[in-house]
């Protein structure tokens, strides 16, 4: 269990789309935006973790058609989200420039509704077949090998992974919120949104062009 927890924590802490999206939403929507994105992300992970534990992910990966459909849907959603972030970055930059010219202090554009943060976090993971592939290949390495207990162990490890995800990103959101006064400057926020959009677009392209297995 300790070995699994350490390996899982290292993987969770590695920079990636989740971190980029949570960072952006924590800046735009405050701590609540970041936490809701995090909860959505862990719910998306739970879909694949639970499916892997009961063997559904293995069936999905065995079907080239099902895998391709999910892959295209996930890539399309990430690309759509990337475009929205790039457009938001442009609006934020214009808002900051207008505020500087008018002396209003750099108010940011309106944040999305809170449910949107939860939806973004959930769909970015739930529609990503690479997450399913990760759990199917990662979890079995730590199972004891007993057929009868494999499902229970897989569910336990999936739960541990989810708790570590929540713990790490909970601390991360708190840190971003702490630095929020500087990070929420329009020029900084626009750059973060731009980088996040480019990163998600790159992930979408990579996901769409990757081989099925």
From TrEMBL:
Keywords of this entry: Cell membrane, Membrane, Transmembrane, Transmembrane helix
CC terms in the record's Gene Ontology section: plasma membrane
Localization terms from the record: Cell membrane
Principal location listed in the UniProt entry: membrane
Membrane topology category: Multi-pass membrane protein
Record field: transmembrane: 36-62, 122-143, 155-175
MF GO annotations: amino acid transmembrane transporter activity
Pfam families: LysE (PF01810)
Domain of life: Bacteria
Alphabetical list of PANTHER family matching this protein: ARGININE EXPORTER PROTEIN ARGO, ARGININE EXPORTER PROTEIN ARGO-RELATED
Name this polypeptide is given: LysE family translocator
Phylogenetic classification of the source organism: Bacteria, Bacillati, Actinomycetota, Actinomycetes, Jiangellales
């Amino acid at each position: 269990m300790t070995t699994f927890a350490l390996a899982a924590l290292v993987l969770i802490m590695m920079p990636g789309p989740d971190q980029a999206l949570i960072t952006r939403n924590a800046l735009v929507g405050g701590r609540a935006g970041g936490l809701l994105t995090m909860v959505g992300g862990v719910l998306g992970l739970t879909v694949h973790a639970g499916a892997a534990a009961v063997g559904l992910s293995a069936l999905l990966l065995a079907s080239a058609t099902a895998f391709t459909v999910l892959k295209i849907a996930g890539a399309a959603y990430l690309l759509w989200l990337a475009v929205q972030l790039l457009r938001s970055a442009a609006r934020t930059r214009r808002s900051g420039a207008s505020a500087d010219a008018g002396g209003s202090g750099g108010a940011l554009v309106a944040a999305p509704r809170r449910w949107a943060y939860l939806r973004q976090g959930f769909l970015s993971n739930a529609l990503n077949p690479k997450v399913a592939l990760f759990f199917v290949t990662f979890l079995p390495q730590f199972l004891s090998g007993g057929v009868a207990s494999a499902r229970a162990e897989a569910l336990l490890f999936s739960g541990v992974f989810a708790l570590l995800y929540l713990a790490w990103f909970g601390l991360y959101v708190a840190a971003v919120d702490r630095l929020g006064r500087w990070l929420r400057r329009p020029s900084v926020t626009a750059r973060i949104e731009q980088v996040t959009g480019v990163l998600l677009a790159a992930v979408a392209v990579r996901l769409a062009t990757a081989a099925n297995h």
